[in-house]
Amino acid sequence: MNPRLLIATLAATAVIAGCSTSTAGPSVPGLAERGSTMTTATLTRKDLTTKVSLKGKVALNPVFGLVAPVDGQIRYLEVKDQKGTPTKPTRVGAVWVNGKPTHVEVPAGSTFAGRLVDDKTTVTAGMPVVSAKYGGYGIVADIDGAQAYALADGLGAVRAQIKSGPGPFDCAVLGTTAALPPGTIPDPPAPVVPPAANPADPAQPIPPQVPQPQPEKDSRTPSESTGMRLVCVPPAGVRLINGAEVVLEVITAQAKQVLVAPVEAVAGKQGTGKVDVLDPNGDRQRKDVGLGLSDGEVIEIKSGLTGTETLAVPGPDLPKPAQENGVPGK
User: Fold this and answer.
1) What is the pLDDT of residues 9-66, one digit of tens each?
2) How far apart are CA 138 and CA 238, in angstroms?
3) Which of 7, 43, 58, 267 is most exposed by smallest CB count within 10 Å?
């Protein structure tokens, strides 16, 4: 080979190798193994308030439900059609237990809108038994399944903000948040008809045929079924416009100075969960804990820890089900 050609070829090869070396990026660092402790957290004490946000609207004459106050047998009263909005509570029935009644009343400002179960049905405390219709503007917010359990343990304060309107203001809750079946309004009882005279008995005069009064037809329309909803009314003086959008903030629970941990350190959301406690050598020890309230940032530790522990973050992964849709868990 020509010496000059050999030298040129070697020089070109060196240039290409040099360019390749200079353009190569830095090596990618290795990822930490799954479950590696990235940081730690300690437990603290603080006041906790849990809230649920709902979207609602202003509605005219909203329907709400009244529940059985105790376990027992519901016995309804005949409720006559009322003209106008009642200014006093209307008694609509009672739940009887051991011969004693616990009365069910539609509050003042609302009218009876239907029976939700049959008369003399055995009911449990908290079961909707009567529907009522509020006379005027109220605020109605629909509740989905995920929110239902958050609201199941009771409602605290409710604050409302009308979009581009008044607020925030307190909103008084009417009735229950449970879904309501269709209401029924029974027909009024038929008038009592006196027994007919016996024509074969001459001592018994035949009474004159007097037309019997016909019961007045009830003009009320029973309530339709509803999904789960929250109905509340604002204070007097708050201007409402039918159909206006509203955001409700519902306080569901409060606790004072409870032991809490960051949610990232805990596996589980309600009832029971698990945490990884670090010993002085940095080794993990998995422990079961009882869980309470959470505000999304921290969660209450009700049992299982003393408060002096150091927790691994992130916390443990919960195992997947052994089989899901016919495919073993991994």
Assistant:
1) 545 454 444 444 444 444 444 444 555 556 899 999 999 988 889 999 999 999 999 9
2) 11
3) 7
Strand order in the sheet with 128-134: 63-67, 128-134, 110-115
Exposed/middle/buried for residue 165 (C-beta within 10 Å: 0-12, 13-18, 19+): middle
**Its pTM surpasses 0.70:** no
**Residue pointed to by tokens 């505000």:** 295
Length of the chain: 330
Supply the pLDDT for residue 282.
86
Strand order in the sheet with 122-123: 100-106, 90-97, 72-76, 122-123
Q: What is the distance between the alpha carbons of residues 64 and 252, in angstroms, rounded to a whole number?
A: 20
Q: How many helices (H) and strands (E) does the chain have?
A: 2, 21
Beta bridge partners of 102: 95
Residue 151: strand, helix, or coil? helix
- Supply the mean pLDDT for the chain: 83
| Cα atoms found within 13 Å of the Cα of residue 174, Cβ hemisphere only | 29
What's the confidence (pLDDT) of residue 268? 87
What pLDDT score does 39 carry?
87
